[in-house]
Amino acid sequence: MSNKNVKVKEYIIKSAADFFAPIGLILGIYIILHGHLSPGGGFQGGVIVASAAVLIYLGYGYETATNTLKPNLLKKSEAIGALMYSFFALLGIFYAANFCRNVFYNVGNPGDLFSSGTIFLMNFAVGYKVLTGVGFLILLMFGLLANKEA
Amino acid sequence: MKKFFTYFALTVFLIIGCYTAIEMSKLSPTFNGEKVNVVELYNNPSKYENNDADGVANLMVKQTIDKTHAINAVTAIVFDFRGYDTLGESFVLFTAISGTVVILRNAMKGRAD
Predict the structure, then answer these.
(1) Is residue A5 part of a domain?
(2) Which candidate from A89, A99, A148 shows the least CB-CB separation from B112?
(3) What is the pTM of this model?
(4) Which of A6, A25, A70, B10 has its CA 20 to 30 A from that of A54?
(5) Do B67 and A144 touch (CB under 8 A)?
(6) What span, in angstroms and rounded, lies between the C-alpha atoms of A79 and A133?
(7) For chain A, what percentages of helix, strand and coil (3-state, to nearest 5) are there?
(8) Chain B residues with CB inside 8 Å of A77's CB?
(9) Containing domain of residue A132, as a range?
(10) What are the structural domain ranges in chain B?
């Protein structure tokens, strides 16, 4: 892009980003929420959601990506995800069992979305933490790239 | 005074650790490999009889749905049986991102070096 002689048609990248960013978001959130039913889990789904940040950067540039995703908010949300995991692990102590104990695992039938107790909640906490953390990391590195180009 | 408390706490941890190690060595082992026929397992691993497995393998493979009600056995192991492992893993990621923020702090403010 630094070469002025080559004019890149940005419409192709922009329309590809428009097409693939919602698919990535929905697929990532599906994988996070169905971690206890289908292959995948918190880590993998979080990274898929964070790839939407890359698509927004490629299509619309660094300014739009930071205006859309708010890096300072993402940095705080990652700490909230870590605290959520610790809280769900501490639920075992509140229910008079040991740490990381699955205390209310027999709430739903096996195969339901809201079943398996703290596994579902911990899965969501790890997915939230990974999607905010990796998204923040990607935006930070793209910020360095944008400063070098300017 | 501060140094005294540090060494006192470390000594208490060391004593508790030694006591725990001595008490654990007296317990019976959960899996000592007595029933495993190594020659048979090496020759034809697909036909090996493993119905009478004991210890953690039996618990994790056969009783996953009874104990956790989760269909995906990998998620059940990662988030339930080995919850400490996932806690450490997620805090490793947290530490890595904190280190990146410290190194690339200037990029956040819009200043190139």
Answers:
(1) no
(2) A148
(3) 0.78
(4) A6
(5) no
(6) 9
(7) 70, 0, 30
(8) none
(9) 10-149
(10) 2-81
